[in-house]
Design goal:
alpha+beta; 501 residues; binds flavin-adenine dinucleotide; FAD/NAD(P)-binding domain; 2 domains; elongated
Length: 501
Amino acid sequence: MFHRRDLLKFLLFGTCCPTTHAEENPKWDLTVDAIVVGSGAAGLAAAATLAEGGLSVLMLEKMNSLGGNTVISGGDVAVPGSPVQLKMGIKDSPQMMAEDLIRAGKTVDKERVRFLAQNALSTWKWTQEKWGTRWNPDKLQFDEGQSVPRGLLSIPRSGFALFSSGIEYARNLNVQIRNNSLVEDIFFGPNGEAQGLLVRTRYKFPDPASGTQIKIRARRAIVLCFGGFGADEEFREMVNPSMGKLLATTNQPGATAESIRMAMRLGIKTVDLDQIQALSWISADEIGLGDAWPFIEQYSAFYGIWVNNKGKRFVNERGSQRLRSERLLEEIKNGHRIFGITTQNAIEHQPDDLQATEELKLRGIIRSFPSLEALAVNSSISYTELVRTVEKYNTCVNNAVIDEFQRNLSNTFPLNGTNWFVVEIRPKVHHCMGGIKTTLSMQVLNNKNQIIPNLYAAGEATGGIFGRSRIPCHSLIDALVGGRAAGLHILENTHSKNEND
Ligand SMILES: Cc1cc2nc3c(=O)[nH]c(=O)nc-3n(C[C@H](O)[C@H](O)[C@H](O)COP(=O)(O)OP(=O)(O)OC[C@H]3O[C@@H](n4cnc5c(N)ncnc54)[C@H](O)[C@@H]3O)c2cc1C
């Protein structure tokens, strides 16, 4: 039988059989104990753990700037049983976190999910104690899919805080870090063990001919922490056409698919590559994640409506991430534009984001109008239909009912007054749930489900942990736990090998 997976391989490589790169006695330009591919959270956790154990570690990053998606992320990490939860009297546990992830992801690797939940607290403490990352002692992020508030916030609240402390810790442990170094291939030894890498140094992304190739040997292990492929339109189009060229992304430009293609070409097992998450609450007028998403999510979704340019609502604005993304995508496929609309009431009700709203207005991302008609005319939305939509919505709000989209309208207020706000919304690709299949110790499997000796993977490069849907705040902690687990397993093997030598 010809499976979808085989078809994908055929499209990618024109063959259903894996090829492996083997070269008898390659002439190595450099030898280290361990090589880590990628400089995001997973790579930092793996490299620091290995260096703590006394190994010589080389970290390779293809881009000029380090940090991958980690450095541009929000830096929120989900930790059950954190001191902040204890202080706030919130009861949480690894079991509750695992149940949340399994419920959201449905098709997840349950053992890996439980492993993540059980190791989240100790790994987070490690970042606090060893990396020196600072965490907000008073606040927690509560996202859709979490049964309790669980997201710890770094200080300042940004992935840069996590990244900069991690890279400093790694440097202090003498991890060698090389940027502009693209890993192009893996060398395997006579027993199928990963031996080293073909690396393009002085690489200038995205020019494949830039720089020169060298061969680097890893005595102990290689850890693949090359992140996701959210910025690779062509690959997305191939694995999941509905997440293809139609959508922009929140990811850094280097989140491309050459590394996952390499893995597939080498017969490494991959799972869930078609499971790609789009965020529904992003401004169409900003690059990447942008700054308008809190306005879209807090104001227009909570205290307003989302309409298409025909003036019609099409979704429960408070529905699940997946539901909203799917409905928004349908609208876009039908050639519609989408707008979030709210009024002064919302801003007054929750004045925390007042300054941010003013700044977004100055930049023209959010626009305000004295009337619904002015808003409709200036945004090319059908006014006649929009009036009907708003009237219908207001009636439901006044009667505090659950509306036709299953949205409970008992806790919001009608749209009226002389200050109307509008922002154009467009979903963007945010996270790749699929990737390399690993064991709990993050050892990489081949297509025959066999462990490939000395080869590990962690972070967004791996698949199976989030299944169909990732809960926000849970991927950085997965990258940290996975990277550390890989490092600890390599150290364990190294020590037992040394004892046997
Ligand atoms: C805007 C944004 C906000 C986010 N906010 C959060 C949040 O608040 N909380 C949360 O949990 N998650 C968040 N996420 C998701 C999270 O940031 C990522 O899942 C996580 O950073 C992945 O870490 P990683 O180490 O696996 O990969 P990355 O951090 O992406 O690092 C991978 C690195 O590998 C490099 N690389 C790839 N291929 C090669 C190669 N062949 N050779 C050499 N180098 C290579 C890449 O250039 C990249 O630098 C966010 C994501 C985005 C885009």
